[in-house]
Amino acid sequence: MSMDSDMGPDHKPDKMNSSASYEPSDVRVSGILVFLTALGIFVVVTALLCYGIGKVLNARMAREDGPNSRWTKTADVRQLGNMPSSPELQNKIAEITQSFPTPRVQTDDGSQDVTDLHAREDLLLENYSWADQAKGKVRIPIERAMELLAQRGLPVAPAVEKTPLMTGDSAPDVAVPLTSGFARTGYELDQAAAQKVGERRAERNR
Fold first, then answer.
1. Predicted TM-score of the model (pTM)
2. pLDDT tens-digit map of 129-153
3. Domain range spanning residue 138?
4. CA gap 51, 43 in Å, rounded
C-alpha cells in the first residue's frame, strides 16, 4: 500500500510543488477588483474635493473684488491663447525697456552688473588714469600707492583735545573690521576659474 492511501481521502496535497515550473494556483480576481474599485473611489473623491475648493476660493475672491464697475470687467484669458514670439516684438520691447529712466529693474539676478562694476573698479585700481587733467592730478595703481605709503608713511594728524567724559559715559571702543568690505561674487569666481581652465588647456595644446 502506498503512503498516499494511508493518509485517507480527506488529505489535500500541497499546492506548492517544487518540481513544477509554474504557479499551480490562479490569480484572485477579487483582489484586483477591490483595488480598482478603491482607486476609482479615491480619484472621484479627490476630483470632487479639488472642485469644491476651487469653487470656495473663486467665491471668496469674487466677494473681495466686489461687483464689476465701468473700469473693470470679467475676461476669459483662455480665448487669447499663447502670444506669438516674434523678433520684431522682442526688439520693440527691448527699445521700450531701454528708454525707461534709471535705475531700471534688473532682468537677471544682477551677477553681470556686479561683474561689470568690479571690472570698472579694477581699471581704476590697477592702471594710471587722470583724476583731474586740468589740475594735473593722476590716479596711480593701488600697488604703487601702497609702496609709496610704506616708504613715506602716513601724515600725522594734529592732536585732538579730548573733552572730559560726562558722568556715566564711557570711551567708545572702535573695533577694527575683519575685511575691507570687498569680495568677489560667486559668479565672478566661477568665471575666473573657467578662464584659468581655458588658459591651462591652451598651454597644453601649444
1. 0.32
2. 888 888 888 889 989 988 998 898 8
3. 111-153
4. 12
